[in-house]
User: What shape does this take?
Amino acid sequence: MRRGREHTPAGVRQDGRVADPRVPELMQIAETIAREAGDLVRANRPDRVDVAGTKSSATDVVTAMDLAVEELIRRRLGELRPDDGVLGEERGLEPGASGLTWVVDPIDGTVNFLYGLPAHAVSVAVVSGDPDPASWTMLAGCVHNIPDATTWTAGAGGGAWQDGRRLPALVDRGLDDALIGTGFGYRADRRRRQGLVAAALLPRVRDIRRMGAASVDLCMVASRALDGYYERGLNPWDMAAGALVVIESGGVVAGLRGRAAGEAMTVCGPPTLVSELIAALEKLDADSDAEL
Ligand code: LIP
Assistant: This one.
């Protein structure tokens, strides 16, 4: 994952050719499984979605559909890529023997799914190395938005695509002209601080949007429906596929203070905008939950 400096995206040689010949097949598998998962949700969405449990807080919900979708994804990966590992939001890490790990979010934007709001997606990615954003090499990914079936795919060195159309390179712009996406965590102390950061940024940007699904936010940057995006608190499964889509559309995905994107902070967009956004977020200590 790029860290705010120009270097070859993960998985691609300096000559720009795909470094890993497995990428095309992995892209196809990611898209096939993400679409099958989307079909499952669309065919079985109940009139009333019930909460099956909660996680980090009373509002961090998991539904029966989250569990069913992750079960389908794991079953299909077991059929198609039996030696690979799987890291999923609901069942955690099941290591594999191949050196590849699939990083999956069965329904990213679960609260949106619960309320019937339009941004909620299946996110399926595959990485080599530890499934840790600080060190993984992203190889392929797919984000499949469930309500409208909009589908983003990307492969290391293979470009980023939306509904089969290759996405053009991002266009840079200044922070004051930028439409910025963000999101908020589930814990009250973190949300309080995140609200202060957003309030401080608001007069400095065109506007702020909060979609409710990180994977969709990331892909909307690649599609230029957002100019940039930042969020503190993302899990590997929230960002694995969408980050590759951004990078393969010529964007940068980074953390603050020269660190890789990850739980502390994820910032993405075209290079100049990312540099300006990182500088603003560093001044606001946006990678901290401490009371101001
Ligand atoms: C969601 C993220 C979103 C964040 C939400 C939540 P989930 O993931 O995609 O960006 O703002 O708080 O974490 O929990 O729906 O899989």
